[in-house]
Amino acid sequence: MREITSVAVLTSGGDSPGMNAAIRGVVRTALSYGITVFGIHRGFTGLLQNDMELLSSASVSNIVQRGGTFLKSARCPEFHDPACRKQAAKILHTRNIEALLVIGGDGSLTGAHLLEEETGIPVIGLPGTIDNDIFGTEDTIGFDTAMNTALDAIDRIRDTADSHERHFLVEVMGRNSGFLATHVGIAAGAEMILVPEYSVNIAEIALQLATSRKAGTGSSGIIVVAEGNEPDLTSKIAHELQQHGLAPHISILGHIQRGGRPSGHDRVLASCLGAVAIEYLLAGYSDIMVGVSNGEVVDIPLDDLIRYRKGLDPELLKIALQLHK
Ligand code: F6P
């Protein structure tokens, strides 16, 4: 067992539902081993400002069901600078904090990796992002909730699309990845799913939709468009559809997908990863992310997140297409 008496935890980058449950998992597990826990406010930005509070078991009461992160989150471009990472390590040393737990997406976890590599501060990452685009883990904290939030919105859009015999282009988040869009599209029964991983032929799409409308097999429809596609793809498709006599509507779901009460799945995932992160730390691990593979908790070297990109399973898209033949 590694001897640790004090750790800090922060949430960084875009918030995701379940981050609170993850903090709670970290805090309560650490306290059970007699470890002091500091909660850093506003991610790496707060760390650089030495802005943190001592957390007790009561500090994390009544948060497991809340979206967002009570520690606040931020994007911190300064952390790209090695001098800032050195400064962060100095602040942690001054407070006798021996390890850092970082809950965030791949950018935040890359920052965490560089902090350990350059300064020797042990770090453990937890995958917190709605995008589910982190290499090495099949699930991330917040993905399930975001998918269900998007589905709730699309199911409602479907009702009005059907009633008015219209097509809707629904843009979902996911940064450069089509993972969220693919899952949302399959679960929503979307007529088309457009993701950045595969090139899109706008003319072909418009012709296909116009033809099935004429044939009476597609008077309305939902086209899920991942935000990471080429710039303005959604409006370009809308324009092309208009040329074919269709009057599509655009609905950009945006940040609604990041908020809301975490699903039961995300609460359990976040609680378990929070607890396991402390167990791994005590077992001597660091410079790793705790994630999920084949339903089991695994550790992934943070280095791998920089070297490899999570690919979209082509089988999933194939299934999505087959379901709409
Ligand atoms: O990474 C999470 C995410 O919500 C992405 O899906 C999206 O592209 C991005 O963050 C938006 O970031 P911001 O809230 O900083 O505009």
Q: How do the strands line up in the largest sheet?
A: 3-2-1-4-5-10-11
Please report the distance between the alpha carbons of the first and last residues. Answer: 56 Å
The chain-level mean pLDDT equals 96
Q: Helix count, per DSSP?
A: 11
| Rg, alpha carbons | 22 Å
CATH topology of the largest domain: Rossmann fold
Q: For this structure, what is the CATH class of the largest domain?
A: Alpha Beta
> How would you spell out the order of helices and strands?
EHEHEHEHEHEHEHEHEHEEHH
Count the beta strands. 11
The number of domains is 2
- Taken from the alpha-carbon principal axes, the silhouette is elongated
Strand content: 15-25%
Bound molecules: 6-O-phosphono-beta-D-fructofuranose
CATH architecture of the largest domain: 3-Layer(aba) Sandwich
The residue fraction in helices comes out at 40-55%
Main pleated sheet: 7 strands, mixed
Flag low-confidence runs: none
Which structural class should the secondary elements be placed in? alpha/beta
